[in-house]
Amino acid sequence: MKAKKLSFLLMLIFVLLLSACSGGKETTGNAKDPEKEDPPVKEEEPAEEEVTYDLGGRVIKIVNHWDMTPQGGTELGDLAVQKVKDVEEKYNVKIEYHVVPWEEKVNQLTASVLANEPIGDLVGLDTNMTAAMVQQDYLYALDDIIDISNSKINDTLKKMGTFNEKVYLMKHETNESGGMYYNKTMFEQAGLTDPYELQEAGEWTWDAMLDAAKKLTTGSNYGLSGDANLLAEYSIVTNGGKVLDTTTGEVLLDSPEAMEGLEFMASLFNEHKVVKPNEGDTWNNPRQYFTEGLVGMTQGWVWEADGRSETPFEWGYVFWPKGPKGSDYQTIVSSAEGMTIPKGVESPEIVYQIWEDLQLWEANGENVIEWFEDVMPNEESVDTATQMLEKINANYWPAYDLYDAFWGTYGSISNGDESPSQAIAKVKGEAQARVDKFMGKE
Asked: Which residue ranges form the domains of the chain, and what is each CATH number?
């Protein structure tokens, strides 16, 4: 009994001691949580400082056949003017813009490079000029002077600037195009499906175009107008073919894709007779026929749209239709322009960085789309032109001394004088010899 009392007494003392340790305070839902330690303050990483250069007041000459001096007065113009000021301060340089006539550019650049005194640090060239200069080793490849993977030039523009598997031609945006203008009014009156609707459904094909052209060829009207040289190239490329493999230097006009394209082009002229004959001017006549409402479709580029704002009918713009071997719609580009860095330029890697810093990357493409909206008559045409920027197929075959190699060849096919196989067999050997000589394979 005494043991039980002692045990009870000890338990009571323990409870009282525990209560005393808690301060005898009642805990409720409003009681504050015990104070927690503040987490350690995370030190901010110092901002990465922009690399600056001191080129000692060096003059950076930018040369082209037109004056590239930025002009203020617009939002983009003011930004471009400010870019020049920022670059001059960052590098301690003076930016100067010089004009050299188009016809003198190659000769002046060649002579200046050979004298080790390039006419400019940055020189504007087209792809024909660039290809020739690359073969002479007169230009720097960007791959050899910078880490091309860190360049702001996107993949599409890198491909457009590539020769011999290296990037030489610099562009910060593209406005390339190449498709078909069509007379919407004529299509509606004939009860034909609008080509844009077919395009968006993936059904704008050679067969669809031919069907429309046949139905639009009535009386004095024709389904199509065009130059045989352009219609031949477009028929080859939209069927998955090429005029030239610019990497290997092989002329590919006798490939199955190319031959099928030329056969189709020949049928438009000779079998179906849906192409309005030209009257001596293969450039202006096709465009004139379309503007006058005499044909339903014609080949053309976006820059031609501005001259068609006053036509007495509604028109639209779509891709050239794809052939049976074509996997997608394509923007056919056989010539382009951009900037290059000639051999002999001091510190070419810094010159490239100066060029990059001068570009309006933050507004890339905005002015191009705004231009489309200004010159195109409807949203569908603007959409097509915008899509074309993402579907560029650049093949600079004329630059490999082939510019005039096929003059008369495609004409003889369109006139029915020769079959495609006969005409190509006649010129392929000489064309291949030209390319081999140009690429130094002889």
From this structure: 58-175+336-364 (3.40.190.10), 179-334+390-438 (3.40.190.10)
